[in-house]
Amino acid sequence: MQTEKNKSNLRGVISFILKLGITILIMWSIFSKLDLKEVGREFVTQPVWVILVLIGLTVLRHWGQYLTWKWALMINPNYHPAKYEIFNSYMIGQALRFAIPGSFGMIGKIAFIHNDSRINSLYSFILERIFVIWALLFFTGLALVFVDIGLPSWISWLLFLIFITMPFWTYFLLSVDRRLKKLQPGYLKLAPAMVVAQIVITLLNYVQYWILLDQVQSVSFWEIMNRMSLSHLAYGIPITFAGLGIKEKLAIPLLSDIGYMSEHIVSTTLIIFIIQDVAAALIGAAIFLKVKRTK
User: How far is CA 30 from CA 43, 126, 150, 235, 258, in A?
Assistant: First the structure.
């Protein structure tokens, strides 16, 4: 038993080292081709109002994602949260997503939920992730219809129709197991709110990119939304931390096509990454330490 546990731990360590190495390698391959002075200049010359707007949009995005997590838990009729439990677990999840490349560490937030069973917390986590992935696929499908990347138009429309209907077939998938079937009434009631929340959250993210890139050269929000939708496929490739590196690799050719330099693209994605992900992870880590001490 101990040997199996040691082997499992070893595999986990090796996987972590490999994915950390991949992240570093990708980021090095990007930065080695950039003018780092220009990247640094982009960081320090942003107007104060831009940073404040980005922070405000980030707060709204996290609030929307917190509500999605709350609704995913409330789909279980037997869940009755303790005070601050959902908020604390959500923020802790933001820290834990950096514990393992690919954001898999976020699953650890279910350990801070007092549910009727751990498996029901896991179901809620899976449902929340389904809606997050759905939003990415929905906007990706939309972008495939309007951005020519070489796909036949019928394939683009077919993918869009498949992606847009995902929440409907998720409802019917809940009927395949009696333990899941009890979640259907709650899902039917709360899924529309989760759909709207994820659409708004994703749109706010594209507004952040648009605000930063529009400082460099005038560009339409529609153009940025479509091209960043395609680059956000990086979140579905779980080999780096929070898609770091892969997102930039995908964004550079997509945004270069409309006149942006690589330095502008990378500085934009990193500014949003720091404000949106790193800051939230630091707050989540502080909450984790506090909760750990008191429970």
Answer: 17, 33, 25, 18, 19
